[in-house]
Amino acid sequence: MTKTLGLDVGTKTIGVAVSDALGWTAQGVETIRRRPNHPEEDYARIQELIQNHDISKIVVGLPKNMNGTIGPSGEACQNFAKDIESITGLSVILWDERLTTMAAERTLISADVSRKKRKQVIDKLAASIILQGYLDSQQ
């Protein structure tokens, strides 16, 4: 079986999570530091991850406003998803990610993770929450 890649795309970082082969659980993998002037490096790293983890599909978190409309960051994620789909040839699903970063933050606070450490892992945890939400909807 093949796996699904989950991405939490931000302006400074991309949180990355991968599903298990059965599509039941999501695990945070890494946080990619974005280089604004070199987007090809972001895409190259994602392609490496796709090959290393035998990925067959990609889920990208789509930030929506609370009223369901799409703002500038949502449009940026839609464009990123289009780019990654054409670069990889894999199907890309946009997944509503409202409140995932807040949920990730709460999880880390309740686990008593220091502020400095939270900053390092929040994006990949948010990617895990996005991917897990998608996986749960497929069961």
TrEMBL record:
<dbReference type="InterPro" id="IPR005227">
    <property type="entry name" value="YqgF"/>
</dbReference>
<comment type="similarity">
    <text>Belongs to the YqgF HJR family.</text>
</comment>
<dbReference type="InterPro" id="IPR012337">
    <property type="entry name" value="RNaseH-like_sf"/>
</dbReference>
<dbReference type="Pfam" id="PF03652">
    <property type="entry name" value="RuvX"/>
</dbReference>
<comment type="function">
    <text>Could be a nuclease involved in processing of the 5'-end of pre-16S rRNA.</text>
</comment>
<feature type="domain" description="YqgF/RNase H-like">
    <location>
        <begin position="2"/>
        <end position="104"/>
    </location>
</feature>
<keyword id="KW-0378">Hydrolase</keyword>
<keyword id="KW-0963">Cytoplasm</keyword>
<keyword id="KW-0690">Ribosome biogenesis</keyword>
<dbReference type="InterPro" id="IPR037027">
    <property type="entry name" value="YqgF/RNaseH-like_dom_sf"/>
</dbReference>
<dbReference type="InterPro" id="IPR006641">
    <property type="entry name" value="YqgF/RNaseH-like_dom"/>
</dbReference>
<protein>
    <recommendedName>
        <fullName>Putative pre-16S rRNA nuclease</fullName>
        <ecNumber>3.1.-.-</ecNumber>
    </recommendedName>
</protein>
<keyword id="KW-0540">Nuclease</keyword>
